[in-house]
Amino acid sequence: MVLNLTTIDYIFSAVILILSFRGVYKGFVSELLSMASIILGVGAAVLFSGVFTDSLEKVWGKSNWNFIVAFLIIFLLVYIIAKIFEGLLHRLFEALHLEKLDRVLGFFLGVGEGILVITIVLFVLMWQPIFDSTSLIQNSLFAQLLLPLMPPPSSIPVPKVNINNV
After folding, report:
1. How far is CA 161 from CA 82, 115, 128, 157, 166, in A?
2. CB 131: neighbour CB atoms within 10 A?
3. Which of 14, 62, 150, 163 lies 20 to 30 Å from 143, alpha-carbon distance?
């Protein structure tokens, strides 16, 4: 069986290679908890900033800045806690001499990140209405493997935008 890779396959392969090397360099613990600290920080800030805004209004009075301050305080608090946990876990891996395991798991996490990035790019290419992307990904190995796993773009409701008026 002969693999005919397209230009986009080479680009996607480079993305996976770069992210997997980054995972090896940073290690599993640092890579995973760096992402988690941002995701958890934003998630907690979105969920709880409204409640905290009400508390700030009682102290400072009504202001447009209360929501922004509440969002930033909650984000930074969760982010710092996650970073402290990352440091503790990293020291634990070092104390148990598990650095090699950390690097190997970081490699696989990087490969997973690369596949996730490629999946998102393929989905956006199929979803966007600006140009027909079928010729771009028609013979792509990654598209043949990943597109059947995704929902069809037509199943996602999108507001109609008239490009002539923009």
Report:
1. 40, 30, 11, 12, 9
2. 9
3. 163
The pair of structure tokens assigned to 149 is: 């796993």
Q: 109: how many CB neighbours lie within 10 A of its CB?
A: 22
Angle at 45 between CA 41 and CA 51, to 5 degrees: 150
pTM greater than 0.90: no
- SS3 state at 32: helix
pLDDT band at 163 (very low <50, low <70, confident <90, very high): low
Residue 166 is given by DSSP the state: -
Quote the CA–CA distance of 37 and 84 in Å, as a whole number.
10
Residue 93 and residue 28: Cα distance in Å, rounded?
10
